[in-house]
Amino acid sequence: MAEYRQKKIAMINDLSGYGRCSLTVAIPILSAMKIQCCPIPTSILSNHTGFPVYFFDDYSEKIPAYIKKWKELKLSFDGIVSGFLGSEAQIEMVKEIIRDFGSKDTAIIIDPIMGDHGETYATFTSALCTRMRELVAMGNVVTPNLTEACILTDRPFCSQGWTREKLKALARNIQDMGPRAVVITGVNQGGYVVNVVADGAKEITFLKTIRIGRERPGTGDVFSSVIASCIVAGWELNEAVRLAASFVKKCIRRSEELDIPLQNGVCFEELLGVLVHAADKKSFRT
């Protein structure tokens, strides 16, 4: 019998002990999708910053020593995923990780987390945006939300009035920076949430789902974790986006049914079986 080689993703993100986001979301989701998650923590938090108080420990000074041991072990990965980064120094570290552990067969997924709803996060600076563009150029697939897509392309943010032609131009402009594919997430259009998918030179597609419930922290991490798992597993990008959007919708609905507090994100644990089934079904088909 041939040795089974499980797919592995190096997941670069912060670790928040409470609140369902970042690595505490990525690890179980990748596991459900049959992918080994290998975390690189950028910072340690007691809980995410949406709560009134939190403990925070920047892990920047420890990352080089952490990665040095991986180099000594000559580790390799099928995917490298970059999530929240709090400084220009961390962006440079991620670029080095991609250079050291990436190859032509490694899927590089960049989630350029800089803001949402037209507002930038507290860590945002113009210099950080410039360095983020450099990181985006190294990605195969980039998953900005609408705010981040506008920041990357130096456009003013508008919450409404996005025609398909304008969204196509936005996605192509990001592709021009270097990545093969771009998924602009969470565009609100009426009662729908639209994800804009530009995959190489293919026709840009607009995949929409009905908006339900209230917006919750961590849904972006859920979405990008599913996308990354699917890409490394060999799924078509449109298939990956459909599964991610459907799963997030189910998680929001279940969280509303259980009256989960907004700060606690989505109770995706209740629905991990959906991802296990999807991964099993895909494996059976291929």
UniProtKB/TrEMBL annotation:
InterPro entries: PM/HMP-P_kinase-1 (IPR013749), PyrdxlKinase (IPR004625), Ribokinase-like (IPR029056). This is pyridoxal kinase. The keyword Nucleotide-binding applies. Transmembrane segments: none annotated. GO terms for molecular function: ATP binding; hydroxymethylpyrimidine kinase activity; phosphomethylpyrimidine kinase activity; pyridoxal kinase activity. It comes from the Bacteria. GO terms for biological process: pyridoxal 5'-phosphate salvage; thiamine biosynthetic process.
